[in-house]
Design a protein that fits this description.
- The chain is about 45% helix and about 15% strand.
- The protein is of the alpha/beta class.
- A 7-stranded mixed β-sheet has the order 3-2-1-4-5-7-6, sandwiched between helices.
- Helix 2 links the parallel strand 1 and strand 2.
- The longest helix is centred in the middle third of the chain and has 17 residues.
- The chain binds S-adenosylmethionine (SAM).
- The site of S-adenosylmethionine (SAM) has 22 residues, from helix 2 and strand 2.
């Protein structure tokens, strides 16, 4: 049983996240992917009376859900909720007069609610418009994106963000008769091009690729990792939960070496110059019991690191 689960979303690796993240009981923490507020609720329970959480999400459904669920903490002044993209974190925090924090959580990707709301267009299992915007104020939906891409650009997106081996054939089929405008039309195209048993993997990969492109997920992740390095005080922590290797790889490199190439930089004495020290050698995964209860936790990889003193 996960006491922080709700009908909106079940937070994954909840204990490991709060135990790993909180180093100062009365510190200031950012949950940059608030969602249904499950991790934030667990953080608030873990913190002392003067501990504070800033919850950020770009999705207005998440803001509404978490604001309702966590209203008492907001009233007590222990929680502030802000709608915005975590790529703009310094600006969002500046508006709250916050320039340094003790820890930050990034639970990447989409919530169960976003997947389960057919009209948001995230799931190939439910029919709906090809939308996929986490922030519905953004100008370009997946349908708009497909309407403007040519075949080679679409192929590149399917390869880069979906690692899809049948990218060429799928991109051609998607655009040859005009792009699909619903999730069911897109799923039917992939059904025609890819035979089982690869079909279900291709479906997931193509939907993932479009979602990453629409929400610019790789770029905003790199931006928030850089900003976290400036915002988190020495001794403070970062917790990142990634659900696929496109996210986990840059996170691993950045937390180990402080850069995205994964190249160590050393001083004249040979000491590694890195702003973060990983806390675990390997990422933390959900145990069998959690995976049984919440199959979406199967692919979760949690990495924790501590901000090092400034040289
Ligand atoms: C996996 S869910 C987080 C669930 C949350 N930990 C909970 O306990 O309910 C990811 C959330 O992050 C949000 N999100 C993803 N990318 C974002 C970004 N760049 N800026 C702000 N929010 C983002 C999504 O809208 C979604 O609500």
């Amino acid at each position: 049983m996960n006491p922080y689960a709700s009908g909106y979303h079940e937070p994954v690796l909840c204990k490991a996240v709060v135990n790993g993240l909180v180093s100062v009981a009365d510190g200031c923490y950012v949950d940059a992917t608030l969602g249904g507020g499950g991790h934030t609720a667990a953080l608030l329970d873990m913190l002392g009376p003067f501990g504070r959480v800033i919850g950020v999400d770009q999705d207005s459904d998440a803001i509404e859900e978490a604001s309702k669920r966590l209203a008492p903490a907001i009233q007590e002044g222990r929680l502030s909720i802000v709608q915005g993209n975590f790529a703009n974190l310094p600006v969002l925090l500046d508006a709250l007069n916050i320039s340094a924090i003790d820890g930050i959580l990034l639970d990447l990707g989409v919530s169960s609610h976003q997947f389960d709301a057919g009209h948001r267009g995230f799931s190939h299992r439910l029919n709906g418009p090809l939308d996929m915007r986490m922030d519905v104020q953004m100008s370009e939906s997946a349908g708009d994106l497909l309407a403007r891409l040519d075949e080679s650009e679409l192929r590149r997106i399917l390869r880069k963000y979906g690692e899809e081996p049948r990218a060429r054939a799928i991109a051609h089929a998607m655009l040859v008769d005009g792009p699909p405008s619903t999730t069911a039309e897109l799923a039917a195209i992939i059904d025609r091009v890819v035979a089982p048993p690869q079909r279900s993997k291709s479906l997931a990969r193509v939907f993932q690729a479009l979602r990453i492109a629409v929400n610019d997920e790789v770029e905003v992740l790199l931006q928030v990792l850089r900003d976290a390095t400036d915002l988190v005080r020495p001794g403070g922590r970062i917790a990142v939960i990634a659900y696929h290797s496109l996210e986990d790889r840059p996170v691993k490199r950045f937390l180990r070496y402080g850069n995205l190439k994964g190249e160590p930089i050393r001083d004249l004495m040979g000491n590694l110059l890195a702003p973060w020290r990983p806390i675990n050698r390997r990422p933390i995964s959900a145990d069998e019991e959690e995976v049984q209860r919440n199959p979406r936790s199967r692919s979760a990889r949690l990495r924790l690191a501590e901000r090092q003193p400034l040289p």
